[in-house]
Amino acid sequence: MRLNKSWPAAFLFATCARASVDPLSLVDPLIGTNNGGNVFAGANLPYGMAKAVADVNGENTGGFATDGSSVTGFSSMHDSGTGGNPSLGNFPIFPQICKDDVIDNCDFLIGSRAVSYINSSVVATPGYFALALSNGITAEMTATHHAALYKFNFQDALNGTTGTKPLVLLDLTDLWQSRQNATISIDETSGRISANGTFLPSFGSGSYESFVCVDFAGGSVNDTGIWVNNRAGTVVKDLFVTRGFNDFYLQAGGFVTFDSISANVFYARVGVSLVSTHQACRNAETEISDPASNFSQIQTSAESAWREKLSPVSVNATGVSENLQTLFWSAIYRTMMSPQNYTGENPLWNSTEPYFDSFYCIWDAFRVQYPLLTIVDPNAMSQMVRSLIDTYKYEGWMPDCRMSLCKGWTQGGSNADVVLADAFVKNLTGIDWDLAYDGLVNDAENEPLDWSVQGRGGLQSWKNLDYIPYLDFDYLGFGTNSRSISRTVEYAYNDYCVSVVGKGLGKTNATTYLSRSMNWQNIFKADQTSYINGTDTGFVGFFQPKYLNGTWGYQDPIACSPLASFCSLTDNPSETFESSVWEYQFYVPHDMSSLISTLGGADHFISRLDFYFESGIADIGNEPVFLSVYAYHYAGRPGLSTRRAHSFIPAYFNATESGLPGNDDSGAMASFTIFSQLGLFPVAGQNVYLISTPFFDSINITSPQTQKTATIRVTNFDPTYTDIYIMNATLNGEPYTKSWIGHEFFLEGQTLELTVGPNESASTWGTSADDLPPSISTATQLLV
Ligand SMILES: *[C@@H]1O[C@H](CO)[C@@H](O)[C@H](O)[C@H]1NC(C)=O
Ligand SMILES: *[C@@H]1O[C@H](CO)[C@@H](O)[C@H](O)[C@H]1NC(C)=O
Ligand SMILES: *[C@@H]1O[C@H](CO)[C@@H](O)[C@H](O)[C@H]1NC(C)=O
Ligand SMILES: *[C@@H]1O[C@H](CO)[C@@H](O)[C@H](O)[C@H]1NC(C)=O
Ligand SMILES: *[C@@H]1O[C@H](CO)[C@@H](O)[C@H](O)[C@H]1NC(C)=O
Ligand SMILES: *[C@@H]1O[C@H](CO)[C@@H](O)[C@H](O)[C@H]1NC(C)=O
Ligand SMILES: *[C@@H]1O[C@H](CO)[C@@H](O)[C@H](O)[C@H]1NC(C)=O
Ligand SMILES: *[C@@H]1O[C@H](CO)[C@@H](O)[C@H](O)[C@H]1NC(C)=O
Ligand SMILES: *[C@@H]1O[C@H](CO)[C@@H](O)[C@H](O)[C@H]1NC(C)=O
Ligand SMILES: *[C@@H]1O[C@H](CO)[C@@H](O)[C@H](O)[C@H]1NC(C)=O
Ligand SMILES: *[C@@H]1O[C@H](CO)[C@@H](O)[C@H](O)[C@H]1NC(C)=O
Ligand SMILES: *[C@@H]1O[C@H](CO)[C@@H](O)[C@H](O)[C@H]1NC(C)=O
To answer: Quick one: DSSP state of residue 713?
Structure first.
């Protein structure tokens, strides 16, 4: 792949040391708001439920995009970086001035009211978002946990128009226009708008109810009413809408007009809830008591909350470009928008446990995002794990994806198993491990009727044949009966994770799951070749689909790679999900040693990895690629992992609006760059971080759990990233030759010093058999 991208020197050497820079000033929420990153750019608190932004009619999965499209409203709940359909965006409000103050002259419909924004006016910082519309109205917003505060300025909009009375409408819709039915009611005295509605999750099954409560300040109410299609009236103050003829989507809502507004500014306070409109109002009143005067105080609190979340980490950024610094801090910020903390807002069951939502999706986030939170915000991660276990307790299953109170579609295995194992080996506290183990065993043993939203399919075959067959005969449960290869490798690793927790808890049957974790071997076809356009790649031996009767099927090993066409659940379903056989071929995180032998030894393995990255087969825009960037460690060539990471950062991950190669997936992409820049890459589910060279001279991370500070320091640090190969290392002053380290590093506040040089082949560090990261077939570290 395009590996030799050269960078202008000025770009690399952009900044010099600055005395204690506020990391918040290096967070750019607009990264990934173009080019399919789908990042939420607006105002929110860490894990906040209220997420306020201007919604556009372009690439609006996360609400706003810097793609030149037009603003259709301002809504207060969103997801970040997701694929699937546009998520949330319920009950947008939209201010405007009606010609001659005649209400029917206003634009109510989403198509006619859309107005472009002025590119240079967009300001996005943690806890704050602002822009100017081309009609002269400017909007600023900030947020608390369950409420958004908008400040609209009409100064320029009123100049030269024939209207004087601003109107703000509320639309009974969401970004995906998934509303099934909704109710609105407007208080004619205060102008308070209350609404509720039933909507659909953007990548899942079922429906959810959403509630909102809008109050205004800064202006006196002239009149109120409702609108339906493009006509409005002031007599009626309540409305119920449902789907019309042939499911026709009726556009409707309510509005308020204002007589006079002081200083041409008025405020809209929007409380959100998933329980009731009463609770939405209470949330707003509690969190924003005085909308007309609280704005800057709320913005400041939001900034403090974010600063606090970034505070465990500090870096010596001397010589490091501002681009790479911004990439780093913005990425940490983006990992803490989701999962969202809906504790106290869960109408589905009563529990004293935390409730988190927007695990969107675990398939994306288990690999690096949740491991990052375990380091920098272990308390939050523990609450998230407890929420997964509580979801198992009340709904019978842990999710593989969850959003908007609904079950999301499972993409591969039951990857909450990996999240739990990761929490277990890293000693996250506060978790009921016996209940957790029940949930894990449930995934491994019991097939749900609908395994498209939970658990695993094909479990009879899994237990009896030891692989997931191609075109399985499975009458126990139903799901999209594809992905036999990727499900086999993921289920194998999931079972490994079950065995880790089982073993740790002293369960005698943990060994059953350990042996099932070897099932990946049963779909390896030793004589399978791979061609690209008729040219033999020269590599032999690949995973292949296998029928129930043991006969091999066939899937071109490059199918579903960027060289072929994309494969998803319903879009070109194949035996691998969203990635090729080539890519899944490297996914045996618990036994890379066996995998390397199977593929013909370390040198073959390295050639295969190189070919995969350089031929364009690797898909850097999707999560399965992450661990393969670091797979060289297992072949005793850790320096090649570092080199590979540098080939992608910043060429494919950078601090621009289109600086993500794919959906950020709630911060999954973000965390790939953070760990790469830290020089420690997690193998989720194991107490293992693969060591590479950081992108900074030094990094300190203070564990919020133990208050001890871990330090990674680079001797001979080279900010041009030529000298990136570790020559030798010390841990707490003692020589350290292993190419990996455990979570004790963070908990005990250890110091890792790496001396680097320009020549990978000149180094013997991390190359001998004893230095390799653990594999179950060659080491006992994983299960002692
Ligand atoms: C109103 O608009 C006119 C023409 O664009 C401009 O010259 C004038 O300064 C504006 N007045 C105010 C009060 O903004
Ligand atoms: C609203 O739609 C949901 C989902 O279709 C349905 O369950 C509910 O009964 C509807 N409510 C009303 C009041 O029609
Ligand atoms: C929505 O609000 C209407 C009017 O207040 C009420 O009748 C209805 O029960 C509410 N729906 C839900 C799901 O709370
Ligand atoms: C609202 O505005 C209209 C038109 O300017 C005016 O006639 C009416 O008195 C106003 N209503 C109130 C309650 O101020
Ligand atoms: C920060 O990094 C620079 C460049 O590597 C180095 O010269 C300097 O000594 C470091 N500062 C501290 C306080 O370690
Ligand atoms: C939760 O408890 C409240 C108060 O006892 C009750 O009204 C509500 O129905 C319960 N909700 C569920 C989902 O059980
Ligand atoms: C989630 O919200 C609950 C209720 O407000 C709060 O107690 C808890 O600390 C929050 N969790 C995090 C990680 O912020
Ligand atoms: C977790 O706790 C156990 C028991 O105290 C200890 O042996 C182990 O080293 C700890 N693991 C980490 C990563 O700190
Ligand atoms: C392992 O033990 C659990 C009970 O702790 C049981 O539910 C499960 O079926 C057992 N698994 C196997 C493979 O026997
Ligand atoms: C395969 O051949 C086609 C047609 O010549 C060409 O467009 C395509 O780029 C080739 N693909 C690769 C991966 O070489
Ligand atoms: C196994 O099943 C496949 C698919 O049904 C079939 O094509 C193949 O001929 C069978 N092989 C044997 C040996 O029966
Ligand atoms: C930044 O990343 C994007 C997305 O991967 C890529 O298209 C773009 O070329 C990169 N920009 C630079 C300057 O490398």
So the answer is: E
Residues having CB within 6 Å of any atom of ligand 5:
316, 318-319, 697-698, 717
Ligand 12 and 658: CB distance under 6 A: yes
Residue nearest to atom 8 of ligand 1 (CA): 159
Report pLDDT for 6: 39
Give me the torsion for CA of 100, 102, 105, 107, rounded to 10°. 110
Ligand found nearest the CA of 98? 4
What is the dotted CATH code of the domain comprising 84-115+141-308?
A: 2.70.98.10
Q: Which residue's CA lies nearest to atom 11 of ligand 11?
A: 551
- The one-letter amino acid code at 351 reads S
Nearest to 493 by CA among 575, 596, 417, 578: 417
State whether residue 181 is helix, strand or coil: strand
Residue carrying the six token digits 């960027």:
562
Q: Which of 310, 318, 307, 311 is nearest to 18 (CA)?
A: 318
Q: From residue 241, how far is each of 208, 211, 251, 344, 655 by CA, in Å?
A: 16, 15, 9, 28, 43
Name the residue among 484, 614, 604 with its Cα closest to residue 562.
614
Neighbours of 600 (CB within 10 A): 15
Read off the tokens for 53.
């932004």
Instruction: Please tell me the distance from the alpha carbon of residue 411 to that of residue 591, in angstroms, as a whole number.
Output: 23
Write the DSSP string, 500-565: HHHHHTT-TTHHHHHHHTTGGGGGEEEEEEEEETTEEEEEEEEE--BBTTS-B----TTTTSTTS-
CA angle 712, 714, 719 (to 5 degrees): 120
Pairwise CA distance, residues 589 & 422, whole Å? 13
Q: Tell me if 435 CB under 6 Å of ligand 9.
A: no
pLDDT at 555 over 70: yes
Neighbours of 190 (CB within 10 A): 12
pLDDT (tens digit, 9 = 90+) per residue, 504-525? 999 999 999 999 999 999 999 9
Coil, strand or helix: which one is 752?
strand
Q: What residue owns the CA closest to ligand 11's atom 7? A: 551
Q: Which ligand has the shortest distance to the CA of 5?
A: 12
pTM, to two decimals: 0.95
Whether the Cβ atoms of residue 115 and residue 133 lie closer than 8 Å to each other: yes
**Domain covering 322-783 in this structure, CATH number:** 1.20.1610.10
Element (H, E) at 44: strand 43-44
Tell me how far apart the alpha carbons of residues 680 and 77 are, in angstroms, rounded to a whole number.
Answer: 34
Q: Which ligand is nearest to the CA of 505?
A: 9
3-class DSSP state for residue 488? helix
The CA distances from residue 327 to 316, 458, 475, in Å, are 15, 42, 48
- Residue pointed to by tokens 């009413």: 225
Ligand 5: which of 12, 18, 20, 318 to mutate, judged by most atoms within 8 Å of the beta carbon?
318
In whole angstroms, give the CA distance from residue 225 to residue 227: 7
Q: Domain extents for the chain?
A: 84-115+141-308, 322-783
pLDDT(17) > 60: no
Q: For residue range 396-455, what is the model confidence (pLDDT) as tens digits?
A: 999 999 999 999 999 999 999 999 999 999 999 999 999 999 999 999 999 999 999 999
